Amino acid sequence: MSGDAFRAALRREPAPHTPVWFMRQAGRYMAEYRAIRAKASLLEICHRPELACEVTLQPVEKIGVDAAIIFADILLPFEPLGLGLTFTAGEGPAIAHPIRTRADVTRLKPVDPDTDLGYVLDAIRLAKRALNGVPLIGFAGAPFTLASYAIEGGSSRNFAETKTLMYGDPETWHALMDRFATMVGEYLAAQGRAGADALQLFDSWVGCLSPDDYRRYVLPHSRKAIALAKAGGVPVIHFGTGTSAFLDLIAAAGGDVIGVDWRVSLDDAWRAFPDRGIQGNLDPCALFAPMNELTARVQDIMAQANGRPGHIFNLGHGILPTTDPGKARAVVDLVHERSAAPV
Ligand code: 1CP
Questions:
Q1: Among 37, 68, 93, 119, which one has the highest count of C-beta atoms within 10 angstroms of its own C-beta?
Q2: How far apart are CA 55 and CA 342, in angstroms?
Q3: What atom in ligand 1 is closest to the CA of residue 202?
Q4: Does the CB atom of residue 67 touch ligand 1 within 6 A?
Q5: What's the pTM?
Q6: 37 belongs to the catalytic site
Q7: Count of structural domains, the chain
């Protein structure tokens, strides 16, 4: 069963083949997703467990991945926090009340994941049953990446407002990060109780920091979030992009598996944290390359992992909306063929 491969890799045990899934695997590159999206907004899909469940299953059926990730978004907790969340077509998320001052942090409403985000937990319970043994990943945004959206008011290029608060008012910064760490840790633990087999913490934009800033302003908070998440015994995957300069610090936050992007080789990453699993790290743009080039790149990653237990094949960041689903399927088949134990 392919579910065994993912579960074994999470524990760094030998697996029948290298498990593979893709970040953002349920989404706009799939016609099946676009058909549902034509009838419901992103937030509506998230709020309705039966729709979220349906979208969660699509890449398992169509692409043949070894694990599903629950359909949700890292920004959903902004609704119960009172930040005002909308998604605008083409422009991404917009936060109505960005955080800039200590008073803004004090004003944040308490969040109880079991009630305020209960619809995500319901979707996990539904998907878990429908998946019939295929592992299900729950997820949340890491404190830094969440703080960047909350402070900037949306997506950002250089994180100027985020760093203005971080450098200019460290007390308020740490108060906000501590709030987010507790909330995210409790939310992930609740997803584990609802049935998730693994929990991924997305620190998508943390690579904008220097190693020293990461150590001072982020590490204690990510460590707290991961410790709370792991309390229920469900393994945690800690993912970031642009982290090659501080992989040792990412590992120090405590994840069981570390997700890395294509800017670092798997050999180098594994040297930085020999006692953890590794997830990655095909460039999402490699899926736009001709098939022979794509095959060579997949094989190169397999060669670097060299059959070492604890490798989960993935992209280095989310699959892009213009990707051909046939190419995604081809990568899954290649990884399975090249790693299957001879019979
Ligand atoms: O309307 C749409 O369909 C818009 C696209 C979309 C989708 C499919 C958004 C808007 N969110 C999602 C769902 C989503 N978001 C999933 C489930 C799909 C899956 O993985 O199978 C997941 C895991 C996320 C996580 C997420 N949301 C991250 C972390 C992962 C990453 O790619 O770094 C981030 C940063 C977000 C914020 C977000 N959500 C959506 C947008 C446009 C953005 C902003 C991205 C940016 O700032 O550039």
A1: 68
A2: 34
A3: 29
A4: no
A5: 0.97
A6: yes
A7: 1
